[in-house]
Each structure stands twice: as structure tokens, then as C-alpha cells.
């Protein structure tokens, strides 16, 4: 039987990266002690300050910097695949933007994958609230990314990507059995769309989904929805959090996933 023990952690990230890391360290350690093999952190894992531009100061070159070293060491110390939902990486020859990048560290502390967010959250609401990630973030220009974890192909995405099902369909076409969704979904959209979208991505792709969201009210005033969850390929929620800091953990049964795909060969029945 092929199984993968996975965990999603959530907390209310602040402008204090050291305090955020201490929270991450405690939650990842807790998950590892409970048998987790893969632990997912939310988007903006180390920083959610008053101003988006403050992420420019936190940014590091790829594979070089104290925070990446600390995260790699944490993965090695806990013996898990640690998926950092997003971390700001410096853009060469552009000091005004960063890459919002998922970084994956294996149990030896080696980086084994990187994914740059493909869809940036640029919206203007009727109430006057404006979100413009493209002001300081550079849109990813790499192909969809995945990595192998204990024989399981795992696909990467970030937050707003969740609204674009074609990304997940391509990941599954390339072999993904488990889909990761680190996020900072707002309370307003989260309460209406978060669970519906996560379960839809699982059902339509017959894939497991692990989603780690921020929670609480951040220094900017943004309120995140929380409700991190793990969904099986049949769309059933195996484990979930509420709106408080914590973690959820479950075992994904890959044999059951393969059986579902045999019984319902929707991925082979596509005609478009």
C-alpha cells in the first residue's frame, strides 16, 4: 500500500520574520512528531507586513541567504519535505520586484523544486479596496512545476492560481497525484470560495489536495480566512483547521487514488 502522510500548517504571519519562523518551527516540529512526511506552509510564509513593498527588503538570491538556510535546516532537522508556500526571491537586474516563489526542501535540507506564481492577484473591488500584486511581484515565467516525494508526484501552485483549473489539469497530465495550494486567501473570498474550489480541483483531477492558508488579521489590516484543509481525490475533506493557528494532518492513500482513476477514467475521456 502506498500512502503519504501530509500536513498543512496555518498561522497569522506578521511583519516580524523571526517570530513567524518560530511559529513555523513549532508547527513543523509538531507535524513531524506525528509522522508527517510532507509539510506545507502558507503563502507569504515568513512575512505579511503593513506594506507589500517591504517584501523587497526580505528578498534573497536563490539558494543564498539566512532565511533559506534556516528553512533548509528545519527540513533536515525534522526529516520532512518542507514546502515553503511562497518566499520572495530577488529578481536579477530589477530591484523593484521579487519572485513570489514556492521552495521545496527535502529531508536532507536540499532544495529540490522551485515554482514562481503564474497568476498575480490584481483586482479592484467596488468598495474601493485594491489588490495589485504585480506592483512588487514578478509573474512567473516558468512552466508548471512538480517534484517527487516518496514516489508520489506532487504539483505546485500558489493562492490565486486556484481559480485557474487549466494549471492543475496540466500538472495532472504530467503525472501529479497530489496538488499543493499554499495561500493567503482573504476572509471575504475564503468563506464563499475556498472549500468549493479546493474540492473541485480534487474531484475534477481525481487528485489529493493539500491547502495551507494564512489566518487572522495581519498588520496591513488584511484578514485571512484560515480553514487549511486536506482533500482526497473523491472530494472528501480528510482534515481541516478552523480560523485559529494550528495544523491539519491526514494520510493520502495512493492506491485508492489509482483505483478511483481506473473506475472513473475522466482524464482519458477528455475531448477538448
UniProtKB/TrEMBL annotation:
PROSITE patterns in the record: CN_HYDROLASE, UPF0012
One term of GO molecular function: acyltransferase activity
Domain CN hydrolase per the UniProt entry, residue ranges: 4-254
Keywords: Acyltransferase, Hydrolase, Lipoprotein, Transferase
Listed Pfam families: CN_hydrolase
Matches recorded under InterPro entries: C-N_Hydrolase, C-N_Hydrolase_sf, Nit1/2_C-N_Hydrolase, UPF0012_CS
Family listed: Belongs to the carbon-nitrogen hydrolase superfamily. NIT1/NIT2 family.
This protein's name: Nitrilase/cyanide hydratase and apolipoprotein N-acyltransferase
Naturally occurring in which organism (per UniProt): Oceanococcus atlanticus
